[in-house]
Amino acid sequence: MKVAIGSDHGGFRLKGEIIDHLRKKGIEFSDFGTFSEDSCDYPDIAIQVAEKVAGKEFDLGILICGTGIGIGIAANKVPGIRAALCSDTFSAHACREHNDANILTIGQRVVGTGLALDIVDTFLNSKFEGERHKKRIDKITEIEKKYSK
Ligand code: RB5
User: Does 3.40.1400.10 match the CATH number of domain 2-147?
Assistant: First the structure.
């Protein structure tokens, strides 16, 4: 499995902790920044990770900002992306199983490191269940197509 990861300055510390965790688990990843705590704009990071995931160069993405909200809103503008904000492990598996989420977003200012790492493990280890959920994802794709130029 290949994971694309990125954060703005508001998620920089947690990104480092998640990267250490991925390394320990032997999970392949690429870091798309940011690379310091200097202020930056979360859409600039979101688009890089989202394009890599939408283009299937990476299986899943992880994006972190202060709340996990802005970076997820930006990522969801890229066709094919279903970014899910999770602050609990139930959402982390449900968003894979039911929504086929392909990017996890987390708020560094919202969840502690221990919970964030459990959320990451849960997200990466869960699978889309298909069946009745597939037609709902297809309907999301239809909405996306309707508003794409
Ligand atoms: C940056 O201060 C902060 O606005 C950003 O990390 C994020 O929380 C936005 O949604």
Answer: yes
Q: Is 69 in the pocket of ligand 1 (CB under 6 A)?
A: yes
Phi, psi of 83 (to 5 degrees): -90, 135
Distance 65 CA to ligand 1 centre (A): 6
Q: Please give the C-alpha separations between residue 83 and each of 2, 24, 25, 140, in angstroms, as whole numbers.
A: 16, 25, 23, 13
pLDDT digits (tens, 9 = 90+) for 40-60: 999 999 999 999 999 999 999
pLDDT single digits (tens) 74-96: 999 999 999 999 999 999 999 99
Q: Where are the domains of the chain?
A: 2-147
pTM reported for the whole predicted model: 0.98
Q: Ligand 1: does its nearest atom lie under 6 Å from the Cβ of 70?
A: yes
